[in-house]
Design goal:
By secondary structure, the protein is an alpha/beta fold. It has 2 domains: 121 residues, Aspartate Aminotransferase, domain 1, CATH 3.90.1150.10; 227 residues, 3-Layer(aba) Sandwich (Aspartate Aminotransferase, domain 2), CATH 3.40.640.10. Helix content is 41%, strand content 15%. It contains 16 helices and 13 strands. The strands form 3 sheets. The protein has a 7-stranded mixed sheet with strand order 2-8-7-6-5-3-4, sandwiched between helices. Helix 5 crosses helix 11. The longest helix has 15 residues. The relative contact order is 0.18. InterPro entries: Aminotransferase_I/II_large, Kynurenine-oxoglutarate_AT, PyrdxlP-dep_Trfase, PyrdxlP-dep_Trfase_major, PyrdxlP-dep_Trfase_small.
Length: 384
């Protein structure tokens, strides 16, 4: 009997932690604060317009780069928020989710043997995409409780093979934001070493205490060599639609689109039309997003005040980190398994986002949930 010989292109990858923890949450009927998706629904207008355009027959391919009216609305949005004047037809590409945009951007800049700098704890799609392009991810660790970038360490890691840097702000999973001093140092290194930049800004509209999000789009010199990735799913509570976009200078966009057309070709046409209407008719949804999620964060934080967890600052995203070192000294994976099986709350261990876990006793909770869900979860966690 012949056996199929197959060598995995990603031999070190198994089932994702999100699939694992959600599966455990379902099995043990736990409150699921692990996977990062909202418990509440998308806006009414968005759903109504989706149904309208489906019914009206807009069910065939859109242009590969996206529908022109949606590209125009994206350019208008970024102009209002960041003061950026772009030609949407040449710089905005609508994608099937931000993860597709990240994958395509990484494939665009990475050649075999190239090195791409990423910051741990890192979103788990970065390194596989780099490896599939024949490159190598160079990990720079950010450590609790500040999760600040050590810029001298970054510069020391740059070699003649370094092709680019991936940043993520507001940052998943640490919930920290990059500050102007970070961007000043980033620009210095990018220009000095002639690097490309991928800026993952999917939580751009979710920052707290009135602190504005700093985007690469606001800096002409950085944007000239950057791909900026955004997510409609995060902004409009419709992660299942898998709609995002990439903004890049014209020459980089041309290269991006060469690959994008052979990954998904184009994205869901009725959703593009519905999102166009949403951006045009209800712009206040975006301005209300930060206070909406700040309220959610505060509900969970206040409900956990009596617990023995140390609550780390959440400056953006819809995640909150808890240090459990006053409760247990077991590793974070074992602690999360204990929480879901015995306490009835599913969380994510932070170690899975590191190449070399630092041994911190830190877990991540998602607060994109109804208030009652957050309060019930806190009631289960607080007696620990």
């Amino acid at each position: 009997m012949n056996t199929l010989a197959h060598s995995s292109k990603l031999p070190n990858l198994g089932t994702s932690i999100f699939t694992t923890m959600t599966g455990l949450a379902n099995r043990y009927k736990a409150i699921n604060l692990s996977q990062g998706f909202p418990e509440f629904d998308a806006p009414v207008l968005l759903k109504q317009r989706l149904a309208k355009y489906c019914e009206q027959g807009f069910n065939q391919y859109a242009p590969s780069c996206g529908l022109a009216p949606l590209q125009a609305q994206i350019a208008s949005l970024t102009g209002r928020i960041y003061g950026t004047d772009i030609n949407p037809l040449d710089t905005v590409t609508v994608t099937s989710g931000a993860t597709e945009a990240l994958f395509v951007a990484i494939q665009t800049i990475t050649h075999p043997g190239d090195e791409i700098i990423i910051f741990d704890p890192a979103y788990d799609s970065y390194e596989p995409a780099i490896e599939l392009a024949g490159g190598r991810a160079v990990h720079i660790a950010m450590l609790a409780p500040d999760y600040a970038i050590n810029w001298p360490l970054v510069e020391a890691a740059i070699t003649e093979k370094t092709r680019g840097i991936i940043i993520n702000t507001p940052h998943n999973p640490s919930a920290k934001t990059l500050k102007q001093a970070d961007f000043d140092k980033l620009k210095e290194l990018v220009l000095k070493h002639d690097l490309l930049l991928i800026s993952d800004e999917v939580y751009e509209h979710i920052t707290f205490e009135g602190t504005p999000h700093i985007s690469v789009l606001s800096d002409a010199e950085l944007f000239a060599r950057a791909f900026v990735i955004a997510s409609f799913g995060k902004t409009f509570h419709c992660t299942g639609w898998k709609m995002g976009y990439c903004i890049a200078p014209e020459k980089l966009t041309q290269e991006f689109r060469k690959i994008h057309q052979y990954v998904t070709f184009s994205s869901f046409t009725p959703a593009q039309l519905a999102l166009t209407d949403m951006l045009a008719e209800e712009p206040e949804h975006i301005t209300a997003l930060a206070p909406f999620y700040q309220h959610k964060r505060d509900v969970l934080v206040n409900a956990l005040q009596a617990s023995r967890f140390t609550i780390l600052p959440s400056e953006g995203t819809y995640f909150l980190l808890l240090d459990y070192s006053a409760i247990s000294q077991i590793d974070d994976m074992a602690f999360c398994e204990y929480l879901v099986k015995e306490i009835g709350v599913a969380a994510i261990p932070l170690s899975v986002f590191y190449q070399t876990p630092p041994g911190d006793k830190v877990i991540r909770l998602c607060f994109a949930k109804e208030d009652v869900t957050l309060q019930q979860a806190a009631e289960r966690l607080s007696p620990l």
